[in-house]
């Protein structure tokens, strides 16, 4: 399992450790991943995901998983998140009819 966010696909960044004598050595800035359970109110179902802390703050800002996925474009989401979004959209359209 790669260290990436299940919703946005955010991965590590690369950079340098810089010593006092300005010698640069490669390093990786890892993503702050948390295992969380997010609830979809539309589907009435829980989803267990590994989500970056920054993404989790964004989900809270938008008011939950359903609102976050509705607001995000499908191109910016991972395959797993896109499938959840399609399920939510399908369920919303059937409830509207």
Task: Give a quick rundown of the structure.
With 97 residues, the protein is an alpha+beta fold. Helix content is 36%, strand content 29%. The N and C termini lie far apart (40 Å).
The total strand number stands at: 4
Provide the residue-averaged pLDDT: 94
Which class do the helix and strand fractions yield?
Answer: alpha+beta
N- to C-terminal separation?
40 Å
CATH superfamily grouping: Ribosomal protein L28/L24
* Number of individual domains: 1
CATH class designation = Mainly Beta
Shape: elongated
Using brief descriptors, characterize the structure shown.
97 residues; two-stranded antiparallel ribbon; alpha+beta; Ribosomal Protein L24e, Chain: T; single chain; 3 helices
Task: Outline the structure in words.
With about 100 residues, this protein is α+β, with helices and mostly antiparallel strands. About 35% of the residues lie in helices and about 30% in strands. It has helices spanning about 55-60, 65-70, 80-95; strands at about 15-20, 25-30, 35-40, 45-50. The strands form 2 sheets. It has a two-stranded antiparallel ribbon. The chain has a two-stranded antiparallel ribbon with strand order 3-4. A hairpin with a 5-residue loop joins β1 and β2. It starts with 12 loop residues before the first strand and ends with a helix. The mean pLDDT is about 95.
């Amino acid at each position: 399992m790669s260290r990436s966010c299940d919703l946005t696909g955010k991965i590590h960044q690369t950079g340098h450790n810089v010593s006092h004598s300005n010698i640069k050595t490669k390093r990786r800035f890892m993503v702050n991943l948390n295992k969380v359970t997010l609830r979809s109110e539309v589907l009435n179902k829980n989803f267990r995901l590994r989500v970056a802390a920054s993404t989790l703050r964004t989900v809270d800002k938008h008011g939950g998983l359903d609102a976050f996925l509705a607001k995000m474009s499908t191109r910016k989401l991972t395959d797993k998140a896109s499938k959840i979004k399609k399920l939510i959209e399908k369920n919303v359209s059937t409830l509207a009819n």
